[in-house]
Amino acid sequence: MKGKYFAGIDIGSTMTKVIIYSEGIRGQVIGPTGPEHRHLANIVMEDALAQARIPFEAVDYVVATGYGRINVPFADKQITEISCHARGVLHFFPNAGTVIDIGGQDAKGIKIANNRVVDFVMNDKCAAGTGRFLEVIAETLGVNIKDMGPLSLKARNKVKISSICTIFAEQEVVSQLSEGIPVEDIIAGLHEAIAGRAFRMASKLKIEGDVVFTGGVAKNTGMVKALESHLGRPVYICREPLITGAMGAALLGKELVEKAMESGKAIKIKERKLTTARVF
Amino acid sequence: MTTASLHGFAKARKIYEDRGLRARELKAEGKKIMGYYCSYPPLELITGMDFVPFRVQGSINEAITKADSSIPTIVCPIIRSSLDMAMKGKYDFMEGFVTAHSCDCQEKFCRIWEHELKLPFHHYIDMPHVVRENSFEQFKEKLIMFQKAMEAYTGRALDRERIQQEIRVHNRQRALVRKLYDLRKENPPLLSGAENLEIMIALMCMPIEEGSIMLEEIIQEALSRGNGPGEKDTRLMLWGSPLTETNLIQMIESLNAHVVMDDICVGTRHYWADVEATSDPMDGIVKRYLSEIKCPRTFRESSSTFEEEMESRFGYLKDFARDWHVDGILLQSVKYCDTHGYEVPALKAYFEKIGLPAMYLEHEYTMAAEAQLKNRVEAFLEIIA
Question: How many domains is chain B built from?
Fold first, then answer.
């Protein structure tokens, strides 16, 4: 596949991630998805192309994933984030058996065997126990989201948060603050609650093999620690835990092109344009 | 608009879209409509008494506004919606209403209905939940009570010959439904899963013989039309709780998959088994409705191991999967359906054992979260591709 370029774009609820791949990563950009769903996806793609120093027309195949993948005018194919995350994780961790992904608005567990997805679970009905939950609580506590992990590690008596519903948990946090409980103890309690929920969800899959933790929440060191204590084993984390979906999308695109070439058939390339995707 | 000028697919579509249309026309002609719930009230007895059976259902397209004043929101959403529609007058053509003790929710439902709607006739068939020697006798007693209640209400007796005649009429429709299902053994199938559900629902809202004529027309149309559903990669079977609309199947079929077979009560469960000819025709009816309908509401006693028991309980699904060339199974259930929820662990274990991919799909009684459901089905299709 010398000289060929593959793009993967993962349009999540909060962030859009792009990988340009050609015998290694040539471009990697993470940017906001924007208030109107998918509004800024093409700008993130442009940034990644600039990094790779190629025009959009030079990309041989584009795969879109994530909730914003539908109707993206500049993708050749859409693949679910389940398949893409798994493929991306396998690139970085070939022995991965279970993936726990906690993103902006959902959480999922993926089970992998023989380099294939064999099962998955998702919590996608509300934002409880996701990145958005942490953002809301960080605001209530007056803490920068980036500081939550390190702060929680200083906790001496982590509190018990009984509700995982964002609204109820926020009320609980407010009442704990008024009781004078240190912020770090509250944050550690929140991490414990989210990690417990993610662990129970992933346990439905019977966790096996190396566990890889992905998504924006994997950047939070307190969450990593809490999850590891539930699992009773270390979790593996990519240097950039947001990028596995886009990486998987690029690699699955590459494999589709390779398979088509092997069978002597031309792969279907859409007439794509690098313009704004619109829902309405 | 009347249904008189409509035939085949068009007629099914029209009645599916306006469930009470045919019933209202018939009522205007002086016919009596008997509403029933679920697949358990024996239709042979209802038609034998010259009632037109009408299957009461809920609708996900209708916001529940009136029923909440009667029953709390924790109960089965399909029952809540059905009661809501009745309280809004959507089923005002019904002369009577009959339910059976199919799932536990329905044990109390008939009385609530009677309290809220006050129809001239109500009856609840307290049928057994187990299939044992003496359950057949018990059930027969309850069916005779049902027959007597209708006889007392109408002042007319139902004799053996008439029941035997009704059995033939219903068995003929069942045979036609099985013939319709055969059309989806083909690849690509000759009709879509959504079309099939539309037809099943329409059939339950019209007289039996008229429905059978419509089925014959549809089978002819499906065989001769050139624009059936096209080629797709995956053939799925759908198991689970009742569906009152085609939305879920349409969503699945908007992806690269056909729904070619089902195990739901607005499908095979309702129509698959015939009533056997027995010297007392009631015995055939008893056997068919108690032990031949494959709904998880029925407990089938077994002294064998979990694995052996699974084979006897779910073996028919393996046969369906083989004969309809099924690649995967969607175990779908509406939220709060205990009857189906408790069956999921055993079914998952069974399909894992026989090597057929299966996914559990839970949905609200709305299509509000359709994007998330679609994402799950899409991921399932990628896994089994």
Answer: 1
